[in-house]
Amino acid sequence: MNNLTELEVEHLRHLIGGHGLVAKKLETYAQNCADPELKEILQRDAQAAKQSQQQLMTFLG
Q1: Which top-rank group of organisms is this from (predicted)?
Q2: Nearest Cα to 45, choosing from 16, 25, 18?
């Protein structure tokens, strides 16, 4: 599984960075959200983005 081309590694890094950015944005939105139900949804989605980021990172190892 570690036989990735440079282009594939570059794409993976781009995806990993994108998931990290989405997680940070969702966390910020959740912190500034007054609606408890929406806040919970944003926090849950931020956690899902972090988990996806971690899963994608396993392909680089």
Answers
A1: Bacteria
A2: 25
